[in-house]
Every structure is written in C-alpha cells, then in structure tokens.
Design brief:
By secondary structure, the chain is mainly α. The protein has one domain. 61% of the residues lie in helices and 7% in strands. Helix 3 crosses helix 4, helix 4 packs antiparallel against helix 5 and helix 4 packs across helix 6.
Amino acid sequence: MKIAIAMPPNFGEIVAALPEARGPLTVFCYGDTIYNPGGGRVTAALKAHESVHSVRQGDTEQTIREWWRNYIASAKFRLDEELPAHRAEYAFFCGQERDKEKRHRFLVQTAQRLSGPLYGGLISFDTAKHAIKDQANA
C-alpha cells in the first residue's frame, strides 16, 4: 500500500458524518492508499488494519466510492468493516509480540479506539475487546 501525507479525496464527506475523524492521528484507506494527513507513524499493525479495508473496497473508483458511501451512511456497515480490520491489526501485533502484558495493552488500546467516538460509538468497550480477541485468535 502507498502512504500519502494528505487528506483522502472524500475527507469533507467523512468529517461531516464523523467529526472525530479530524483528529491529527486519524488515517484513511482509499483504495490502495493510506492517507495520513497528520504525518504520524504508520505501524505494520496499522498497515494490516488498512489492508483489510483496501481489499474490501475493491479496486475500482466505483467500488471504492460505494464502500465509502456505505461506511459513512450505515453504522452497521461501519462496524462490519471495522471489526475485521481491528482483528487483523491485533492478530498482526500478537504475531510479532510474545509478551502477554504488551499484547493485553495493545488489545485495550485497539478496543478503546473501536468503541470510541471516532467510529461513532458503535460498540461497547467490553464487547469490542472480546470481539477483537476472540476472533483474532480463532
């Protein structure tokens, strides 16, 4: 995947529906590009997360735009897209890190992000934590 230190093409639409996306550390997948407006570090685990979105968006402008329309409009669709991406991120991290305490801290951070305002409060923290861990380890 390419990384661009820029706003994604549909940034205005995203932040109109999800204002928390304006945050300086928020990254966006649009096709095969990770848009990183804040220029922060894009870890290998985050690349694993964004790769899930890239695959699910497809490889044409039409499928990418349709994915984003659904993502913005539907909380259910957004959760259905974010769960596998967060699971992939956590699974990647666990594949690189053997320390159980570090894994637990990463799980907590990942679940806090998934359950937080960035995605519109889609899921509770406890539900997010269990959904990420149980499926990532399946």
